[in-house]
Amino acid sequence: MALIVQKYGGTSVGTAERIKAVADKVAGFRNNGDDVVVVVSAMSGETNRLAELAHSIMERPIPREMDVLLSTGEQVTIALLSMALEKRGCSARSFTGGQVRILTDGTHTKARIRDIDSARIHAQIELGNVVVVAGFQGVDDNSNITTLGRGGSDTTAVALAAALEADECQIYTDVKGVYTTDPRVVKDAKLLNSVTFEEMLELASLGAKVLQIRAVEFAGKYKVPLRVLSSFEEGDGTLISLEEDTKMEDPAIAGVAFQRDEAKLTVSGVPDLPGIAYKVIGPVSESGIEVDVIVQNAAADGTNDITFTVKRGESDKAKEILDEVADSLGTAEVILDKKICKVSIVGVGMRSHAGIASRMFKALADEGINIQLITTSEIKISIVIEEKYLELAVRALHSAFDLGDPDYEKKPE
Amino acid sequence: MALIVQKYGGTSVGTAERIKAVADKVAGFRNNGDDVVVVVSAMSGETNRLAELAHSIMERPIPREMDVLLSTGEQVTIALLSMALEKRGCSARSFTGGQVRILTDGTHTKARIRDIDSARIHAQIELGNVVVVAGFQGVDDNSNITTLGRGGSDTTAVALAAALEADECQIYTDVKGVYTTDPRVVKDAKLLNSVTFEEMLELASLGAKVLQIRAVEFAGKYKVPLRVLSSFEEGDGTLISLEEDTKMEDPAIAGVAFQRDEAKLTVSGVPDLPGIAYKVIGPVSESGIEVDVIVQNAAADGTNDITFTVKRGESDKAKEILDEVADSLGTAEVILDKKICKVSIVGVGMRSHAGIASRMFKALADEGINIQLITTSEIKISIVIEEKYLELAVRALHSAFDLGDPDYEKKPE
Q: What domains lie within chain B, and their CATH numbers?
């Protein structure tokens, strides 16, 4: 008998039929003897419908009232799911964020959870009830309704699991779990039984958008075992755990991540002086543009090249800012390249295994792919290459690190 | 400078455009220097949409969860109206029933208000804010969400007006106020400047469905001046007051009410014994059928006739029950007549004016209308007649008591 917190997203509860299917799943856990706390999102489409209503009233809706409005989406789902559970003989009680009570700061539309009063939920569990909680929402000190921002239901689930000291937090989604890479690019991409929190953070931020990154950070911080699995298909999904999976024969690499929509900016010939990197990057990030990879290299002539990547959609704006910076530095050219992509290999195992980088670079060399930039961290090596080589590079790396699913050939198409 | 509580129903806030129109109206009062508390219903259609969702999950939805579900309807409206007010430079704050806090008993789907904590609203008024409150909802002692049942937003408005000691409670609806009778039946029906609470209660229960009867009772009990007026047209509407309007020249009759969908049941030849009325009516009302008019008359042979009216839709069921009762009494016939209607004249003035009844009966006799039943109360005389005479009877009475609008002929068609 375990205490499990489950989270079902908007697609999983998108229709009355799907809500019934979720109720079947939850009832199955109850019948197994588990205690279950369920966190749900708004039915898919509902949040957009409400937001459109607000925008038809005013262009930039008041954040406080936006939270009052949007929080109704999850409230509808908790009521319907509780009914569906009761219908299955599974006694259930719904709670809004305010009722639980999930206390947040007062930053409307992107509040952060401060505290959860777990007593009310524990009392309901004692009574044998499934507790159904509205995700994404809370209340501030003055009982004003707040929301955690889009995708915040994952965070609600993890925070509840931490507060309740649950045995596991299960995030149900429309994929079966975390794969070694995107199965649309590499056909034999393998579902991972487990990854570490650190790996998940790198994989998530690099584009495998299975989980909200805030939820993963939260789970890591509070040591909540997190599992990603499918609402629609059977399977154990992927466990995101604190410990490395020592059973794996080759633990070096967990997966290959990639990012398509980046652009590269190089400021060349800047003077080799203290504070120069800040002078270049500072104005860009102050204008609200998110900077990803940053690489600086000294040239032979005593000047520096600073290269970094930004979202492709923001690259023209960044170029304008940098042109001004270059003028003020009285030097240097700014070069923008939009036809690039980033590919990374991620794995906690690379800490203790030498030769990972050279194996990576050899695989790319064998395919004739030129590497434009390299950056490394403890558990990740990222490269920037020409965009047209993306699929080729990902497949080459996936194969070079033996990540393929050995059962793939046996599967029916 | 007055403190006004205003209530806008579902039709008045049915679209974003109508919400903007309500905001214009409220802003007008603010600009006049009045303090305003606004109570709103769910946008028209929304409550039905949510109820259908619930019924697609289970035939008889759990009342507690139904309240969680339906209360979202008003929550959406308060957020949108507050935004619309802010857009007009009129600072506003929305509050759910739980936030206000409107404390109710725990009877889900038809809770009764016990107490209102007016401190939070007063504080907002002090800050110069329009306070927008979700109608129809509250919370019980354990912070469970409750609803007051359909039309409960009127009750919320009156209860708030009482708690805040407001100068007036204005109920905005889709009619201009209370008329002397239904303008669809009598073309020159006149808008009443004022009626008393007692008259309004009789008029409301007799079919002039302008106001929820519970709200009128509440307003009378707490001496809250109540005004019914149109959201869509200009005008002062009808004031429902504690005092008789002594300015009216002929205060005898306030209006003519009628009810179409009734049926008459007569149990004839029952023994003239104590407790016999209970034996006849008891089983009918215990089965949940609402009994309206009851008349008993002694026949010459020492037996009694008991006649009463019920909703036409429930009359066959009532007949079945009465057939069994008649069998057990070993007597008497049960006669069901579905082709009847009820017409009433209402007015506090009839207490002190003799001759009202005879004037009524003469008007009907002049039109050759046979009266089947007569009942009277202090401020009302009701008759049951054949259904086909309804319009004729209403027009005759409206005219006999000089209720017509003298300005009617001058109005454009």
A: 3-173 (3.40.1160.10), 255-400 (3.30.2130.10)
